[in-house]
């Protein structure tokens, strides 16, 4: 006879219902039914299970020692790993089941990774192309019979600006409509620079009174006083 059937018989002999026994022992009726079916898995471990068995035996006036002896014999026959025993006695938490990743998910991750790699490669390639095509615009120096050297910087044809540091040196920054830098630095007194592009040229001159400008073949009026920092833009119709 199992311990569960012994408890069930003792309860019936005492003329107690499950609800009566639950009220006497302060245990849930569902747990008592499981115990009478010899299921102690929800007792919280052997220590708590022994306490429940002892409590039930006392309330039913049954042989407490006999109940505990049968419990030990039955539960000892169930082999448990050390980890299960630790978990059962609340010493160790039960590890959560590892989430399994489906083949479909792995394939999706692989496709996304390849797509991201492709996009990154395209971006890097475009940056490399822009770096080659934009900031460093080669100058073609032309040496004349005079000491003045004229350098030409071009990213297209349509707008032409010739700048000469006629009176004083000046700091100069020149870029085209797409933001590409054609020149950044100091032009010495007496030097002449020529810039051409297809849409627009943007100039920032650090000493406006020291330079002369010629735009699309036309001489321009002074753009500012000595020491003045001036920004100007010239297009095809300038």
The number of helical runs is 7
Q: SS-based structural class? A: alpha+beta
Overall geometry: rod-shaped
Mean pLDDT: 84
Order of helices and strands: HHHHHHHEEEEEEEEEE
**Share in helix:** 25-40%
Q: Can you summarize the main beta sheet?
A: 6 strands, mixed
| End-to-end Cα distance | 110 Å
Unreliable residue runs: 131-136, 138-147
Q: Quickly count the domains.
A: 2
How many β-strands, per DSSP?
A: 10
- Strand proportion, as a percent range, falls in 15-25%
Order of neighbouring strands in the sheet with most strands: 1-2-6-3-8-9
Instruction: Give me the Rg, rounded.
Output: 47 Å
Structure write-up:
The protein is an alpha+beta fold. It has two domains: 3-88, lambda repressor-like DNA-binding domains (434 Repressor (Amino-terminal Domain), Orthogonal Bundle), CATH 1.10.260; 140-235, no CATH class. 39% of the residues lie in helices and 23% in strands. α4 (46-60) runs antiparallel to α5 (64-76). It starts with a helix and ends with a strand.
